[in-house]
User: Which sequence fits this backbone?
């Protein structure tokens, strides 16, 4: 059996007093920055020492070029963590390299689950059919928790318009169960503003967007979205699942005996 003690400790989260202090800090930061725009926010969190160590986590998905472009204007060497689940669309893998080169990003770090962990938990690649939450935990949440060790904050591309589950987002939030702060610079950006930024700056588009994929995850769990649906309606369609576990409590730990 594999030693997953680190993952188990991560699942238990930070001590209660640390989380409570972090919650207070999140409230203070949201009050401090609530009247400022995205560019000011990014400049502040990346250059003014508000956080000791900060990274961006990017899927290099449908809208990722906007936030990556804004960050590249400030710090092209910022760690950008890209989780390769080994189940991504081929188009995403190619787009990741092309967009990083276009923006001059110098510190993109590709994060993957260890092969021995995949072999032990999901040797036949069928976990996504029986337990998609556990599959996301195995291929996304655990590797990211490991990669974020030592960071006190990370930047996400979440936006309120993407789904009903995200309508209550603010600039700053808290990792569930930890004292690590999540920063959502594009929280109030709507599709028209995103499209305008892409056009004005002539940024490369993910090729699957034109084919009906406004939100892009792993190939087996992502479908096209019909007009009028939430942008994320094509993710885990028909499975009652809305988040991969990086941003919510929908994640279910891998069943005992499988790790």
Assistant:
């Amino acid at each position: 059996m594999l030693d997953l003690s680190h993952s188990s400790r991560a699942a238990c989260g930070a001590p209660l007093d640390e989380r409570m202090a972090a919650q207070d800090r999140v409230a203070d930061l949201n009050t401090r920055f609530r009247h400022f725009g995205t560019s000011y926010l990014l400049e502040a969190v990346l250059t003014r020492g508000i956080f000791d160590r900060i990274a961006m986590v990017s899927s290099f998905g449908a809208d990722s070029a906007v936030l990556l472009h804004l960050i590249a204007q400030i710090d092209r060497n910022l760690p950008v963590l890209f989780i390769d689940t080994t189940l991504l669309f081929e188009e995403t893998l190619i787009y990741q390299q092309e967009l990083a080169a276009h923006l001059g990003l110098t510190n993109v770090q590709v994060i993957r689950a260890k092969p021995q962990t995949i072999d032990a938990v999901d040797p036949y690649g069928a976990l996504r059919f029986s337990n998609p939450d556990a599959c996301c935990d195995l291929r996304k949440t655990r590797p990211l928790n490991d990669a974020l060790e030592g960071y006190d904050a990370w930047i996400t591309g979440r936006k309120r318009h993407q789904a009903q589950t995200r309508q209550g987002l603010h600039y700053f939030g808290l990792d569930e169960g930890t004292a690590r702060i999540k920063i959502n610079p594009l929280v109030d950006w709507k599709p028209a503003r995103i499209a305008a930024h892409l056009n004005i700056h002539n940024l490369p588009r993910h090729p699957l967007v034109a084919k009906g994929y406004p939100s892009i995850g792993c190939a087996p769990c992502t479908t096209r979205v019909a007009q009028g649906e939430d942008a994320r309606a094509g993710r885990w369609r028909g499975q009652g699942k809305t988040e991969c576990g990086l941003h919510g409590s929908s994640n279910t730990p891998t069943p005992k005996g499988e790790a």
Q: What stands out?
A: The radius of gyration is 18 Å.
